[in-house]
Amino acid sequence: MPNPQEPAIRSDIPHSARIWNYWMGGKDNYEVDRTVGAACLQIDPDISTMAVQSRQFLIRAVRHLADEAGSRQFLDIGTGLPTMQNTHEVAQGAAPESKVVYVDNDPLVLAHARALLINTSDEGVTSYINSDFHHPEQIVADARNILNFTQPVTVMFMGVLGHADTHEDMLRVVRTVMEAVPSGSHLVLWDGSVDSQAYVTLCEEYAKTGGAPYRPRTQEQIRAAFDGFEFIAPGFVPITEWRPGSTEIGERPQIAAYGGVARKP
């Protein structure tokens, strides 16, 4: 029976998480999402490449943090719809005892979370918080029920902060969460930038569809989210340049998406 406190799934309004799922070849989307997604590809054909490469960046970053940095707690804010190798699968695959908490406020994401976001290990914990990243204090309060905030937490904002109304609000969200986690925690973050006019135009056109507006920012504005933290090499770079695998063949695609991984001192 539906929970009256949860928003209804709207199949008549496009949603960025479902469109992203479409661009990545997923099936968890509606006709309106496919229509808008296809129109966006006409404006910026590189957007599907950005979608796939962003997931590759997530996989490499989480695997590094679990394998080499000893991270055992992950807070993935704005997780979107499950696709390939989600955070908990990568983290628990490397460290079975890892705890992963996903945060999103889309009802379709919530429905899939209940069905699909199950542990990949007996020792680990995988959970979901129904919350909007615009309310970081609430996210922290809810996450404390699952994660141990006296131990390091990896906080992830993977291509979602363009939904913040202003750059100042974006920084507020990141800093509120990072202030709550202890020294030794990590911030993993990426976003699309204004370097690509096609991407800027895509975001402008998407806002006209009724979907939640997405605001591309400059490289400097994205990098500012890391102020006060210590970058892990190679630092703030195009996401395709963050520790690419040695088995990758051919030239890496050039896309206007930048990010990094940094440690809280």
Notable traits:
265 residues; alpha/beta; Rossmann fold; eight-stranded mixed beta sheet; 9 helices; globular; transferase; SAM_dep_MeTrfase_SAV2177_type; SAM-dependent_MTases_sf; methyltransferase activity
Low-pLDDT regions: none
Terminal CA distance reads 46 Å
- Order of H and E elements: HHHEHEHEHEHEHHEEE
CA-atom Rg in angstroms: 17 Å
Can you give the helix content as a percent range? 25-40%
Number of helices in the DSSP assignment: 9
Q: Determine the strand fraction and express it as a percent band.
A: 15-25%
Tell me about the biggest sheet? 8 strands, mixed
Q: How many domains, as an integer?
A: 1
Dominant shape: globular
The CATH topology assignment is Rossmann fold
CATH class: Alpha Beta
Helix/strand class? alpha/beta
Mean pLDDT: 89
Would you report the number of β strands? 8
CATH superfamily: Vaccinia Virus protein VP39
So, CATH architecture? 3-Layer(aba) Sandwich
How would you summarize the topology of this molecule?
Blueprint: H1 16-23, H2 31-43, H3 47-67, E1 73-77, H4 87-94, E2 99-104, H5 107-116, E3 125-130, H6 136-143, E4 154-158, H7 167-180, E5 186-192, H8 197-207, H9 219-223, E6 230-231, E7 237-238, E8 257-263
Helix pairs in contact: 1-2, 2-8, 3-4, 6-7
Tell me about this structure.
Strand 4, helix 7 and strand 5 form a beta-alpha-beta unit. The chain contains 9 helices and 8 strands. The longest helix is centred in the first third of the chain and has 21 residues, at 47-67. It has 265 residues and is an alpha/beta fold. Strands 1, 2, 3, 4, 5, 6, 7 and 8 form an 8-stranded mixed beta sheet that branches. It holds the Pfam family Methyltransf_19.
